[in-house]
Amino acid sequence: MLSYRHAFHAGNHADVLKHAVQSLIIESLKKKEKPFIVLDTHAGGGLYDLRGDWSQKKAEYADGIGRLWNERAQWVAMAPYLGVIEEMNQGGDLHYYPGSPELSRRLIREQDKLALMELHNNEVEDLRANMGYDPRVAVHHRDGFEGLVALLPPTPRRGLVLIDPPYELKEDYFAVVDTLKKAQKRWATGIYALWYPILGQEADKSRDMLKAIKRENFGNVLVAELEVAGQTSDWGMNGSGMLIVSPPWMLDEQIEAFLKPLCARLAQGTGAQYRVEWLNQVEA
Ligand code: SAM
């Protein structure tokens, strides 16, 4: 039984990190005219109304995108991401927030494609409604782990896979490693971006997951983490990470350029920290 609904969390610090990195990767794919595809394994509802009851419940966006919105012009290193949010909120007030599907949909070009997978019945309905009749977009009501492997290798052959499970089930931490292995076997040239939470000490599984990924032979693997608060002993989420397999050239520097000031801006008390590091780097 799936209970996770992303509307409760849309626009929080974890979304800011994930979506800023996602945008930078899509922008680097756009440097060549050749078409590309974005495959999103855990798509959610597509886009979110921040004034809706669910988003308002804990107003997590207030300490995420909410802290950047009024000063968005100064965040040039995150311009593609913030540009999409600006397009969606033309009156100037922050009202709508793009999920990963709407962000991709607004950033890709005429010749590009977007494949979205979502398992939850209600979320997939929202997703279909929110993606409209865009001929570039395909929505698949299916498990994103097996669905991804089944869709590979994709047409066109260049592109990005975004893997963003809710980690409600601890099996998700193993499923992502297994899926990355199977997927890379079928499509070795794809870029893979995996989001993961960093939780309090009792609950955190991200260090074990990173060790398991490091043991595999995935080639270049970059890790970018943002912890908005120091790690506590409880179960709360104090930060998150993006792990990128085969990142585009210079992505590490592009992330570093926004993550350092972002860490200072989104800090919640002392103990905030960030890192951009190679988990694995293949000699050129
Ligand atoms: N990627 C979205 C974004 O950035 O806007 C947020 C996705 S949310 C973290 C995770 C989503 O995965 C939820 O909508 C949930 O219903 C869905 N989900 C859970 N298990 C799944 C599975 N095995 N396959 C596909 N979707 C799944």
UniProtKB/TrEMBL annotation:
The active site is at 164 (proton acceptor). One of its GO terms (molecular function) is 23S rRNA (adenine(2030)-N(6))-methyltransferase activity. The record marks 4 as: Interaction with substrate rRNA. Its EC number is 2.1.1.266. GO terms for biological process: rRNA base methylation. InterPro entries: RlmJ, SAM-dependent_MTases_sf. It comes from the Bacteria. GO terms for cellular component: cytosol. S-adenosyl-L-methionine binds at residues 19, 42, 100, 118, 143-144, 164. It catalyses: adenosine(2030) in 23S rRNA + S-adenosyl-L-methionine = N(6)-methyladenosine(2030) in 23S rRNA + S-adenosyl-L-homocysteine + H(+). Keywords: Methyltransferase, RNA-binding, rRNA processing, S-adenosyl-L-methionine, Transferase. Belongs to the RlmJ family. Specifically methylates the adenine in position 2030 of 23S rRNA. Monomer. This is Ribosomal RNA large subunit methyltransferase J. It comes from Aeromonas taiwanensis. The lineage of its organism: Bacteria, Pseudomonadati, Pseudomonadota, Gammaproteobacteria, Aeromonadales.
